[in-house]
């Protein structure tokens, strides 16, 4: 009894719920599940939470040992080989892939989840993609994330943090990240006007043509030769590949040509619909993998047959709703595009108006500044005009004074010219007089010389006469003292008389010479005075002319120039007596 009670106590203490973490391609969710829940209960909860109605493409995948498995919907969650962790981690992923994404994927959320999963498989190199296709797919991914390309907003380097290309492609070419970004941006710029769901659908339409798209690969061996092969399961059928090539299958079995697939423990058997064809058998080493292969084959075959039937009411409703939703969104996008265009035009008009306003403000400011400058210039010009008027008056006054001075100087110059002419005439007369005096002096000098010569001759004649008289006296008369005295006396008287005449004559000549010398000296003094007066008159005349010239220049506003000093042309010649 006690043991029974303890067992009942343990049963009561067992938890009624368990924690589950579900990871989708863009979110993580945690749920508290009841212990009795089946896989379908948890799957439906996740689909309702995500808002997904196309549930047949998806499943909850979990990791078990060295492989993975899909949660079965008909069994309880805790009865399956799920991890014992808390919370139990599941990945909500696409389990089956459509043949034509554009026709089969109806909901936008379905398209988005497929887009994210296929994009991750390409980047993780689970799906092989050529470099050209990788760049094109990356451009659609950028369009889906960032919208239309705006050069002013999407500056170089805006894709630096995004993973857009497989590492194999990046390592295949010697190109920098900036060069790859430039190539992607060139395609991205051409996708203008494509909405996010359209860009994701275009991405999927390109990706579905890749050889490894939607294919699940498993390692197998062939029955007889124990040859290593690869089995590929996808929406179109089963494919057999060589181990080193996942792109081109060696043999394919489309779903339409398969009559039956069965397995017994590790052996798989594919029976063609055409009985003439051989049955294909292969082996898989793990029972868990064999169950997974069979599960994928059944699910893909069911979807293959479902596509070839009329859509169910639910699918038709979903497609109708999706069509209406797309139409509504298209209209909304058109309205949004028009509003965006109108807003851009309004913003451009606003910017233009602001630019025009700033331009007008600048023009007004410049006009005000120009007005202020013009007012200042007008005041300055008025002040300058007043100064110019005063200067004009002053110059007119100076011009009048200069004119008066000029007239006075001209009168003085005329007077000076007249005086100069008189002085020159006087000087010429003085020169003529001086010449006459010189001539008279020379004539008188010659006369004096003649007189001196006559006097000398007279003295010689007198001496000779005296000598002859003495001789006559000595011969004619005897010598007596009385007669000698008488004779001497008469001779003396005559001699004295002759001497006095000579002396008087000499004195007169000397007196006349002195008078002439005195007159010559006086005349020379007069000539010097005349010369100095003439020079002073010339100097005054030059100064007056310079004054008139400077006054005229001042009246005209020219700078004064130094007066020209010509050399005197008057030459005075004085002859020494």
From TrEMBL:
<dbReference type="InterPro" id="IPR008954">
    <property type="entry name" value="Moesin_tail_sf"/>
</dbReference>
<dbReference type="Pfam" id="PF09380">
    <property type="entry name" value="FERM_C"/>
</dbReference>
<dbReference type="GO" id="GO:0003779">
    <property type="term" value="F:actin binding"/>
</dbReference>
<dbReference type="InterPro" id="IPR041789">
    <property type="entry name" value="ERM_FERM_C"/>
</dbReference>
<dbReference type="Pfam" id="PF00769">
    <property type="entry name" value="ERM_C"/>
</dbReference>
<keyword id="KW-0175">Coiled coil</keyword>
<dbReference type="InterPro" id="IPR035963">
    <property type="entry name" value="FERM_2"/>
</dbReference>
<dbReference type="InterPro" id="IPR019747">
    <property type="entry name" value="FERM_CS"/>
</dbReference>
<dbReference type="InterPro" id="IPR000299">
    <property type="entry name" value="FERM_domain"/>
</dbReference>
<protein>
    <recommendedName>
        <fullName>FERM domain-containing protein</fullName>
    </recommendedName>
</protein>
<dbReference type="InterPro" id="IPR018979">
    <property type="entry name" value="FERM_N"/>
</dbReference>
<dbReference type="InterPro" id="IPR029071">
    <property type="entry name" value="Ubiquitin-like_domsf"/>
</dbReference>
<dbReference type="Pfam" id="PF20492">
    <property type="entry name" value="ERM_helical"/>
</dbReference>
<dbReference type="InterPro" id="IPR046810">
    <property type="entry name" value="ERM_helical"/>
</dbReference>
<feature type="binding site">
    <location>
        <begin position="72"/>
        <end position="75"/>
    </location>
    <ligand>
        <name>a 1,2-diacyl-sn-glycero-3-phospho-(1D-myo-inositol)</name>
    </ligand>
</feature>
<feature type="domain" description="FERM">
    <location>
        <begin position="18"/>
        <end position="308"/>
    </location>
</feature>
<feature type="coiled-coil region">
    <location>
        <begin position="513"/>
        <end position="547"/>
    </location>
</feature>
<keyword id="KW-0472">Membrane</keyword>
<dbReference type="InterPro" id="IPR014352">
    <property type="entry name" value="FERM/acyl-CoA-bd_prot_sf"/>
</dbReference>
<dbReference type="InterPro" id="IPR011259">
    <property type="entry name" value="ERM_C_dom"/>
</dbReference>
<dbReference type="Pfam" id="PF00373">
    <property type="entry name" value="FERM_M"/>
</dbReference>
<keyword id="KW-1003">Cell membrane</keyword>
<feature type="binding site">
    <location>
        <position position="291"/>
    </location>
    <ligand>
        <name>a 1,2-diacyl-sn-glycero-3-phospho-(1D-myo-inositol)</name>
    </ligand>
</feature>
<dbReference type="InterPro" id="IPR019748">
    <property type="entry name" value="FERM_central"/>
</dbReference>
<dbReference type="InterPro" id="IPR000798">
    <property type="entry name" value="Ez/rad/moesin-like"/>
</dbReference>
<dbReference type="InterPro" id="IPR011174">
    <property type="entry name" value="ERM"/>
</dbReference>
<dbReference type="InterPro" id="IPR011993">
    <property type="entry name" value="PH-like_dom_sf"/>
</dbReference>
<dbReference type="InterPro" id="IPR019749">
    <property type="entry name" value="Band_41_domain"/>
</dbReference>
<dbReference type="GO" id="GO:0005886">
    <property type="term" value="C:plasma membrane"/>
</dbReference>
<feature type="region of interest" description="Disordered">
    <location>
        <begin position="440"/>
        <end position="460"/>
    </location>
</feature>
<dbReference type="InterPro" id="IPR018980">
    <property type="entry name" value="FERM_PH-like_C"/>
</dbReference>
<feature type="region of interest" description="Disordered">
    <location>
        <begin position="553"/>
        <end position="577"/>
    </location>
</feature>
<dbReference type="Pfam" id="PF09379">
    <property type="entry name" value="FERM_N"/>
</dbReference>
